[in-house]
From TrEMBL:
It comes from the Eukaryota. The lineage of its organism: Eukaryota, Metazoa, Chordata, Craniata, Vertebrata. This is Adenomatosis polyposis coli down-regulated 1-like. Residues 52-278, 279-475 form the APCDD1 domain. It is found in: Membrane. GO terms for molecular function: Wnt-protein binding.
Length: 506
């Protein structure tokens, strides 16, 4: 790596933590051709948080394979009402043919439960797989060519909203003359580019693809299609080159059972958009210990798992972020433990079942998990990042005394504006969604920057039997009996009156 690049990276490190991972982690890999040939396959076994979450419903070992290049053939569908930054609400049904042609059906809704369809887009084009991504390890890069985009309006309100955004004529259509339920052409290879731009339309998500196959021990197989992430800033959206993923679509033939939404989305067409059934509201109760369902890939070369504990009575939380070099989370680089307080605010104005939060951090501890991260942290100046020259692999350091660590982008105090919601999974276990981090690596440190979309959900370790949705009584035991609040957090609650906070970079 040239020194110019190194200094560029180090400058990045001062601002954001994800970049720290680039330096500490993939330093030797980022600019090299991937070691494997284009055709490769990764095999690994993943039991969600096996070592951190020993509860029966998570104990099934799932073997995950991911081929490069992936096999896209088939139809892939949403498993729930999806929320994109904005917020935008949609369901998707994408079909890829073996001759590389695809047809992507997107249904947009006016509200966050996908009960009230606004319009549907039918997108036709061709996709070409290029090479294994050098940046997002485990993904394949692709380019695409659009041949046609059609639109069907489902409501008068949607028509008015689109008419105010779109140019007066797109291809040959005039929005005002459109009839609800009838398909119109919005774009073809000769015309309509301005219309797509005015809608903020982009299928840049097709630029990054990964297919994971989960082989369950009882014999079932689930296939998931990960496509590139959507930029959280609307203005950046059409130019964005994804390095992370959206929530995956599942293969219509190999999905998790039961999935009533999958069936509805699969049977839909642009003229018959799926109307999702109303699901019971799940009270937002954070009590307990929540973990990632899988190794999570984030924009800008970040592979991690999260592990959160909340104590609502004390308004205390602890988050453990385990960082890795690779997309299977097998090579740890560092672990970060953050603790602090939180306060729940109002329900979100557009996401009826989501709630606003404010998070404060009182303490941050970091453990270097490999030699190169330890060396990097060891090179910081005294008083800047924990005890200087005392970084060792596997030994935790408290960053509170140095008010954070500029090299890791951690500055105390700090406050963050958050968005949380809860849903139930197919087994009626609660899922916790926390706000999506801004794609540019900045922090939601102002109310205006509060997220409008979500990260992949976390699952409750004790299976949800104790969640208030099922039992109000038992949830108290989780908080108190099972040691979910550790002593350090308690000590902080007692002594930590001056609330310093930290910028959680996730
Ligand atoms: C992955 O596992 C499958 C099934 O066990 C096996 O057939 C395949 O050869 C493995 N692939 C690699 C690259 O190890
Ligand atoms: C950090 O620096 C100290 C003192 O120079 C040294 O003893 C130690 O081995 C270093 N640790 C690493 C991981 O390089
Ligand atoms: C949780 O608490 C129950 C009841 O006190 C106890 O039997 C169980 O071992 C605890 N589990 C853990 C992981 O501490």
């Amino acid at each position: 790596m040239s020194s110019e690049r190194l200094s560029h990276l180090l400058r990045g490190v001062l601002v954001l933590l994800p970049a720290a991972v680039i330096v500490a982690g993939t330093r030797n890999k980022l600019w090299e051709v991937p070691t494997g040939r284009f055709t490769s396959s990764s095999n690994h076994t993943w039991s969600p948080q096996g070592e951190h979450c020993q509860y029966h419903h998570l104990q099934e070992k799932v073997k995950i394979t991911a081929d490069i290049p992936p096999k896209l053939d088939g139809t892939w569908v949403s498993t729930r009402c999806e929320v994109r930054p904005g917020p935008e609400f949609l369901t998707r049904s994408y079909t890829f043919h073996s001759n590389r042609h695809f047809q992507a059906l997107q249904h947009y809704y006016t509200e966050s439960s996908c009960e009230d369809p606004a319009y549907s887009l039918i997108i036709r084009g061709k996709i070409r797989l290029l090479q294994a991504s050098w940046i997002t390890l485990g993904a394949t890069e692709a380019d695409h060519h659009l041949s046609r985009v059609g639109i069907v309006l489902h409501s008068v309100a949607a028509k008015q909203r689109l008419a105010s955004r779109l140019p007066s004529a797109c291809v040959s259509l005039s929005i005002n003359e459109m009839v609800l339920g009838k398909p119109y052409e919005l774009y073809n290879t000769r015309a309509g580019r301005a219309c797509l731009a005015a809608m903020g339309f982009s299928v840049a998500e097709m630029g990054l693809v990964r297919v994971e196959k989960q082989h369950h021990s009882h014999g079932g197989e689930v296939q998931e299609l990960f496509l590139g992430d959507i930029h959280t800033d609307w203005a950046q959206r059409t130019q964005h080159r994804p390095t992370g993923y959206q929530q995956p679509l599942q293969n219509a033939m190999h999905h998790i059972h039961p999935c009533p939404v999958c069936a509805l989305v699969y049977r839909s067409s642009e003229q018959r958009p799926p109307v999702l059934p109303r699901t019971p509201a799940v009270p937002l109760s954070l009590a307990g210990h929540w973990v990632s369902q899988r190794c999570e890939t984030r924009p800008n070369v970040l592979f991690l798992t999260r592990d959160f504990t909340f104590n609502p009575k004390q308004h205390a939380w602890e988050g453990i972020y385990r960082h890795y070099l690779d997309s299977t989370c097998s090579q740890p680089t560092f672990t970060l433990r953050a603790m602090g307080h939180y306060a729940q605010g109002n329900p979100h104005s557009k996401l009826s079942r989501a709630s606003e939060f404010v998070f404060k951090v009182t303490q941050v501890k970091v453990t270097a998990m490999d030699e190169s991260t330890a060396k990097l942290l060891n090179s910081t100046r005294p008083g800047k990042c924990g005890r200087a020259r005392d970084w060792r692999v596997g030994v935790e350091q408290d960053l509170t005394l140095t008010n954070g660590c500029p090299m890791l982008g951690i500055k105390l105090p700090h406050k963050e504006y958050e968005l949380f919601k809860m849903e139930l999974d197919h087994k009626k276990h609660p899922l916790l969604f926390t706000g999506e981090r801004p794609t540019d690596g900045s922090s939601p440190d102002r109310p205006l920057r509060r997220p409008t979309s979500f990260q992949p959900p976390m699952v409750l370790c004790n299976g949800g039997e104790t969640h208030p949705y099922f039992s109000t009584l038992k949830s108290k035991q989780v908080q108190l009996a099972n040691g979910t609040v550790n002593l350090e957090t308690l000590a902080l609650l007692v002594f930590g009156s001056a609330l310093c906070s930290w910028l959680s970079v996730y």
